[in-house]
Structure formats: C-alpha cells, structure tokens
UniProtKB/TrEMBL annotation:
Reactions catalysed: D-glucosamine 6-phosphate + acetyl-CoA = N-acetyl-D-glucosamine 6-phosphate + CoA + H(+)
Keyword hit for Transferase: yes
Protein name: Glucosamine 6-phosphate N-acetyltransferase
Pfam families in UniProt: Acetyltransf_1
Family membership noted in the UniProt record: Belongs to the acetyltransferase family. GNA1 subfamily.
GO biological processes: UDP-N-acetylglucosamine biosynthetic process
Pathway: Nucleotide-sugar biosynthesis; UDP-N-acetyl-alpha-D-glucosamine biosynthesis; N-acetyl-alpha-D-glucosamine 1-phosphate from alpha-D-glucosamine 6-phosphate (route I): step 1/2
Taxonomic lineage: Eukaryota, Fungi, Dikarya, Basidiomycota, Agaricomycotina
Enzyme Commission numbers on file: 2.3.1.4
Length: 196
C-alpha cells in the first residue's frame, strides 16, 4: 500500500544536504510551524551521531555511544527497510544538537486484513528542554506518520510515571507487557505427567 503523504515539509538548505532516514514529506508542515523559532524538526540523519544523539538516548536508557562506523551501518540497515523505520528529531538551530527524538516502527500483519501497527519507541527530550511540549510534538508527528502509513493503531510501552504524559497525548492504558532477557537462565520445565 502506498502511504498518503501529508503536506510536504519545507526543507532548509542544511537539511537538503543531509542523508535522511526517510522522506521528510512524511512530517507535516504544521509540525514545523508549531515549533519555536530556535528549533527545527526533521528525520534522523546519518551524521546525527555527532549531534548528541546518544546524550539524548541516555536520558531514556543505557545508551553507550557506538563508533561512527557502527552508527552508519545501523543507519543503513534501518534505511534499507523502506516505509518501516521513522525516527524524528528536533534540533536546536543555535547548537545544531538534537534536543528531542522519537521513533515509529511500522509492522505489517496478516491479521486485520493485512493491517499495519505502529510501534512508538525511544521518546526522549533533553532535560533542559522538558516541559516545552516537545515530547507532545514528537508524539503528534509520529502519530501523523502512522496515519499516513495506514496503521490502524499505535502502541507503546512505558513506565508508570510516564502514563500521565501519554494520556495527555491521547493514549489509553491497555494490556500488560511481558519480557524475557536472553541473559536470564533457561527455564527448567518439569516433564508433564503423560511423559513420565
Ligand atoms: C516523558 C517526556 C518525553 C515528556 O516530554 P516533555 O517535552 O517534557 O513533555 P511535554 O512538555 O510535551 O508534556 C505534555 C504534557 O504532558 C505532561 N507531562 C509530561 N511528562 C509528564 C509526567 N512524567 N507526568 C505527568 N505529566 C507529564 C506535561 O505537564 C504536559 O501537560 P499539559 O499539556 O497539561 O501542560 C520527557 O520528560 C522525557 O524525555 N523523559 C525522560 C525519558 C522518558 O522517560 N521517555 C519516555 C519513555 S516511555
């Protein structure tokens, strides 16, 4: 299915020279217009390693910087899956550093008549910029991308403390999350009685 692109984002000269993760036309022009004049919004670029991407991610979780070579390779891997990985960043025009980021990953299903689900991941706003509605703007932009792609729902995992933030973004609580870490010891399943 071809995505229906929202209004094209007006690109600056600097942005046109960047190698971007996805077509910036996915980002509605309204998302840029709603930002303060000191900020800009765009897709992740292959060179964002040097714009504080890992400082930003470390607000969220353990995110030790990888080498520029590994960063470039990972970026290429994501870029090689068209219409799947959409990472959006907000950049300070003054410092050229990332101040907020977030991703939506589009999963194709066989269920729901070969429907699509958007998974929101890695939302982070730098500490000094929190409370300026950047988190909300990132989520709104990702939701717009999910809609343009034709997702029938968007889901995410979060800790309890962030539930009010996501509720303000229009999400509601549903189901539970389960996890199994590969480093965890194997489960010793006792034999079932019929096999004894
Ligand atoms: C959670 C986070 C993304 C919010 O971003 P932000 O830009 O500071 O939030 P916004 O300014 O867009 O907030 C939007 C609304 O949510 C509210 N809000 C934000 N974080 C909240 C929280 N933890 N608890 C309650 N309300 C919260 C704001 O008060 C605001 O409400 P209002 O519209 O009534 O004024 C940001 O604080 C952050 O990066 N935290 C660390 C990383 C993290 O936990 N990421 C989420 C992983 S699931």
């Amino acid at each position: 299915m071809q995505p229906s692109l929202p209004h094209a984002l007006e690109m600056t000269q600097d942005q046109r020279e960047l190698d971007l993760l996805f077509d910036p036309s996915f980002i509605p022009e309204s998302a840029r217009q709603q930002l303060d004049a000191d900020l800009t919004i765009r897709p992740l670029a292959s060179t964002d390693h040097s714009r504080g991407h890992f400082d930003l991610l470390s607000i969220l979780t353990i995110a030790p910087p990888v080498s520029p070579i590994v960063y470039a390779k990972t970026f290429r891997n994501l870029q090689s899956c068209p219409n799947t990985y959409f990472t959006v960043v907000i950049v300070s025009k003054q410092t050229d550093q990332l101040v907020a980021c977030g991703s939506i990953i589009v999963e194709r299903k066989f269920t729901r008549a070969a429907g699509m689900i958007g998974h929101i991941e890695d939302i982070a706003v730098s500490k000094s910029m929190q409370g300026r509605k950047l988190g909300l703007k990132i989520i709104n932009t990702l939701e717009g991308i999910g809609r343009a792609m034709g997702c029938y729902k968007i889901i995410l995992d979060c800790n309890k403390e962030n539930i009010p933030f996501y509720e303000k973004c229009g999400f509601k609580h549903k189901e539970y999350q389960m996890v199994r870490y590969m480093e965890d010891p194997p489960v010793d399943h006792p034999p079932t009685p019929s096999k004894l």
